Amino acid sequence: MNEFELIARLTKSLPTNQNVVTGAGDDCAVLDLGVPDKLFLFKTDAVVEGIHFKKNSPPEKIGRKALARCLSDIAAMAGTPTTALVTIGLPENFKPGFVEKIYGGMNALAQKHGVAIAGGETTTNPDRIFISIALLGTVGREKQILRSGAKAGDAIFVTGELGGSLAGKHLEFEPRLHEARWLAENFSIHAMIDLSDGLAGDLRHLLKSSRVGAELLKSTIPISRAAKETARQKPFTKPPFIAALTDGEDFELLFTVPGSDAVKLLDAWKKQFPKLRLRCIGKITADEGITIRNKSGAQPLTANGYVHFA
Amino acid sequence: MNEFELIARLTKSLPTNQNVVTGAGDDCAVLDLGVPDKLFLFKTDAVVEGIHFKKNSPPEKIGRKALARCLSDIAAMAGTPTTALVTIGLPENFKPGFVEKIYGGMNALAQKHGVAIAGGETTTNPDRIFISIALLGTVGREKQILRSGAKAGDAIFVTGELGGSLAGKHLEFEPRLHEARWLAENFSIHAMIDLSDGLAGDLRHLLKSSRVGAELLKSTIPISRAAKETARQKPFTKPPFIAALTDGEDFELLFTVPGSDAVKLLDAWKKQFPKLRLRCIGKITADEGITIRNKSGAQPLTANGYVHFA
Question: A44, B10, B253, B298: which sits with the fewest CB atoms below 10 Å from its CB?
């Protein structure tokens, strides 16, 4: 049983109440706490030694990553993060200086985005460091962007470049908070998700929530230099294009807008964010499933996203 | 370095913002999210296999305990819990049925208290199950009860009976949510904390926050049957009175009210909660430190609360 099958079983019968606008199954939970013009976003995410970082990863980057992952989920709803709590499980022989540096990396990123760290909890996890972040954010009422709004004819966009994140980006990525809010304020974004499981996997999540399909244009998928470099160094692992489709932890934004807005969006983006690439990689189709088109025609995408249990 | 020393170092320089009314250092963080009549309580807490439960503990009780610990912290602020997220770290060979039962125990307790579980996150923790709960609650504006309000002359009260929780109560305790709200609505509660580290340790936390001391009356400390039974079975470990002072995970309420309200409170409590004992165990003093009085006089309490790294 993989992560997604387990989650499907566990989320079938979760208790709910009148505060919950959107529960399990999107990037964040959306809560109505009675503020007239705002909804609240609520998210938890964990990083674990040996899974999401190495024992010898720089501690500042470990802490930074732990928070950045949650921030990326707030970005995927076009929200603004406000308050975090930090739960850290430590082996008994932990080094206080190492833990302080983890917090240092976290605090610096929090400050950059105006996020308060209002406490949390320390506990024992005997074998490895385990960091769980709980994050609250806000979004204008009716302004939250879900995974479920994609429509046939939408253009599909992705920020940045994909694949090879494990070579370093996974510890240093910038959560696309400003970009997401700008998109939501200036365009009709139908659906959005952040890329944590890989383009193919996360696109499938978005398509499933929206009950539509997609056709991607192979030549437009932005492949990162790291993915190309990794393929050069390890020629028997996956080629760069497959890495861009299936590598996890890109933490870029994947979103759809009405096809008629595509050109206007690309023009406005280039002026607003000249240093960050935005690519139209295909379109939403009424038929479900993903096909990839290249010069010789279209074929169904069988390579699934990396189904990581994380 | 123990848990409390580490926390003191880590919480010195946490970033904050205008939403945070009370940050690290109380039972919950208190947030002002712009609702005119309400403040929000935000809490995370974790349970870890081999630390807070055993590999063969009944899974329903593991899930129940994970949530109940957080609910107890909401109770300590006289709040009402509303929405939880669940982060669960699982070894790769996890049994889906076991995990579903963990959620079953958690869901049942959530439903009992009207709490929604709005999602969360599954991840890998290779060696053991790790469950972190993030919980949001509400409390009337200016109605939150902190650790820091105790005043010299206050009477000190404790609910239930103390010590020996590891014999079973730690998996089955009832978070004192109703009792705490009734107290806050009907009496002037100056300070409150839930007992997770043991009476001596948690009283010290409350006294330190309030910058006062306490004199306890030895004969009034309510000792649980489990503490007495454990002492009978293991006569070379601590005597029952010391267990009641220092055992962790009682999850009872410890609070102070003006001394002049003590008798009225005891009378009203007996009518309201006839099945749950409430004991006045001493009084707040202007001099810092804890003394314990018995027939032969008063002596300083040196037995510290169990400083568990959890």
Answer: B298
Residues A228-256 pLDDT 10s:
999 999 888 889 999 999 999 999 999 99
- B31 to chain A, any CB pair closer than 8 A? The answer is yes
Say if residues B257 and B155 touch (Cβ distance below 8 Å): yes
CATH number of B14-140: 3.30.1330.10
Whole-number Cα distances in Å, A229 to A53, A223, A224, A241, A247: 21, 11, 9, 12, 14
Q: What is the pLDDT of residue B90?
A: 96
Q: Which residues in chain A have Cβ-Cβ distances shorter than 8 Å to B132?
A: 44, 46, 87, 132, 134
Question: Does B3 contact A42 at a Cβ distance shorter than 8 Å?
Answer: no
Please list every residue in chain B whose beta carbon sits closer than 8 Å to the beta carbon of residue A85: 29, 42-44, 134
pLDDT at A113 over 70: yes
Q: Report, as an integer, the average pLDDT of A114-124.
A: 95
**CATH code of the region A154-300:** 3.90.650.10
Q: Where are the domains of chain B?
A: 14-140, 154-300
Say yes or no for a CB contact (<8 Å) between B136 and A31: yes
What pLDDT shows up at residue B9? Answer: 87
Residue B149 DSSP SS3: coil
Name the CATH code of domain A3-140 (choices 3.40.50.2300, 3.30.1330.10, 3.40.50.1400, 3.30.1490.480).
3.30.1330.10
Q: Is B286 on the interface with A (CB under 8 A)?
A: no
Alpha-carbon distance of B215 to B204, in angstroms, equals 12
Report pLDDT for B310.
34
- Per-block mean pLDDT, blocks of 10 residues, chain B (310 long): 81 92 92 94 97 96 98 97 97 93 97 96 94 97 92 98 95 98 97 96 96 96 96 88 94 98 98 98 96 90 51
- Full 3-state SS string of chain A: CCHHHHHHHHHHHCCCCCCEEECECECCEEECCCCCCEEEEEEEEEEEECCCECCCCCHHHHHHHHHHHHHHHHHHCCCEEEEEEEEEEECCCCCHHHHHHHHHHHHHHHHHCCCEEEEEEEEECCCCCEEEEEEEEEEECCCCCCCCCCCCCEEEEEECCECCHHHCHHHCCCCCHHHHHHHHHHCCCCEEEECCCCHHHHHHHHHHHHCCEEEEEHHHCCECHHHHHHHHHCCCCCCHHHHHHHCCCCCCEEEEEEHHHHHHHHHHHHHHCCCCCEEEEEEEECCCEEEEEECCEEEECCCCCCCCCC
Note the pLDDT of residue A99: 95
Please name the residue of chain B whose CA is at the shortest distance from the CA of residue A14.
B117
Asked whether A280 and A266 are in contact (CB, 8 A), the reply is yes
Decide which of B13 and A117 is more confident: A117
> Partners of A135 in the beta sheet?
A43, A84
Q: Report which secondary-structure segment, H or E, holds B275.
A: none
Q: In whole angstroms, give the CA distance from residue B155 to residue B32.
A: 31
Q: Given the cut 0.85, state whether the ipTM is greater than it.
A: yes
Contact B44 A310 (CB under 8 A): no
Q: Which whole number is the average pLDDT over A160-176?
A: 96
Same fold, B14-140 and B154-300: no
Contact status of B90 with chain A (Cβ, < 8 Å) = yes
